[in-house]
């Protein structure tokens, strides 16, 4: 079941957190909050040529700007975001987001969904991450001129990294750590666990690692516009 609420009806949105709490008494409720940075939202509104629902006359003389409308919406939805699993979609293409949501909404046994995402430390930590692994200590394909323009999804980069024992060891350690603690996250009532793997720019090492699917759970893969696992 899907319920749409007009963002302009602030009073209704303000009641949502309590409504969700009431529903949780008798039902299993999962709330996913899809977020994006302001620049990405501005670009999306420009591409779709849609007006923000909170835009309009600020007063008799001035229109509410798009940035002001976005900020107002963030403040309005903050209590709901605090109850939800927040996912930053800034670097996620629309088709990838659509595919991920379709997979998520399929009728399947309830379990823990592990979301792997790659990121670059120079761009900052992803706010939605539950676990963060730093792989900047691994050899960097960036310094190979032939590999520099490629990403961790490309076969030459993967072959380069697979030959390095430290890379294989790091990948195995990450997988073993996550698998070891999954039962504890499940016992804690988690529906989602976001594992962020970071290198300097988020292009080579973090995109390539880890490349083994976790066995105890279903894995949904997101990261920097490219899945962390090769297809």
Shape: globular
Summarize the main sheet: 4 strands, parallel
The H/E string reads: HEHEEHEHEEHHEHE
Radius of gyration: 20 Å
Average pLDDT rating: 76
Structural class: alpha/beta
Multimerization state: single chain
Distance between the amino and carboxyl termini: 31 Å
Strand percent estimate:
15-25%
- Taken together, the total number of domains comes to 2
- Low-pLDDT segments, ≥5 res: 212-231
Secondary structure topology:
Layout: H1 10-24, E1 32-35, H2 38-48, E2 56-57, E3 63-64, H3 66-81, E4 85-88, H4 94-104, E5 113-120, E6 131-134, H5 155-162, H6 165-187, E7 192-199, H7 205-208, E8 218-221
Parallel strand pairs: 1-4, 5-7, 5-8, 6-7
Antiparallel strand pairs: 2-3
Helix pairs in contact: 1-3
What attributes characterize this protein structure?
231 residues, alpha/beta, 2 domains, four-stranded parallel β-sheet, two-stranded parallel ribbon, 38% helix, 16% strand, globular
What would you note in describing this structure?
With 231 residues, the chain is α/β, with parallel strands linked by helices. It has two domains: 1-90, no CATH class; 92-231, no CATH class. It is 38% helix and 16% strand. The chain is built from seven helices and eight strands, in the order αβαββαβαββααβαβ. The strands form three sheets. Strands 6-7-5-8 form a four-stranded parallel β-sheet. It has a two-stranded parallel sheet with strand order 1-4. It has a two-stranded antiparallel ribbon with strand order 2-3. Helix 1 (10-24) runs parallel beside helix 3. The longest helix has 23 residues, at 165-187. The two termini are 31 Å apart. Residues 212-231 have low confidence and may be disordered.
């Amino acid at each position: 079941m899907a319920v749409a609420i007009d963002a302009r009806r602030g009073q209704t949105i303000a009641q949502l957190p309590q409504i969700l709490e009431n529903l949780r008494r008798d039902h299993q409720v999962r709330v996913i909050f899809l977020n994006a940075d302001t620049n990405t939202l501005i670009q999306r509104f420009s591409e779709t040529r849609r007006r923000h629902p909170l835009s309009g006359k600020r007063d008799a003389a001035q229109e509410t700007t798009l940035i002001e409308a976005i900020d107002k919406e963030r403040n309005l939805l903050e209590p709901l975001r605090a109850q939800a699993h927040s996912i930053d979609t800034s670097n996620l293409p629309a088709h990838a987001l659509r595919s991920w949501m379709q997979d998520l909404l399929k009728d399947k046994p309830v379990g823990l969904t592990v979301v792997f995402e790659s990121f670059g430390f120079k761009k900052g930590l992803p706010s939605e991450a539950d676990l963060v692994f730093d792989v900047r200590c691994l050899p960097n394909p960036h310094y190979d001129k032939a590999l520099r323009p490629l990403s961790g999804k490309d076969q030459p980069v993967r072959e380069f990294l697979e030959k390095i024992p430290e890379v294989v060891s790091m990948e195995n350690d990450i997988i073993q750590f996550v698998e070891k603690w999954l039962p504890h996250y499940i016992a804690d009532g988690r529906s989602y666990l976001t594992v962020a793997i970071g290198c300097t720019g988020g292009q080579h090492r973090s995109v390539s690692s880890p490349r083994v699917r976790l066995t105890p759970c279903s894995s949904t893969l997101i990261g920097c516009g490219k899945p962390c696992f090769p297809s």
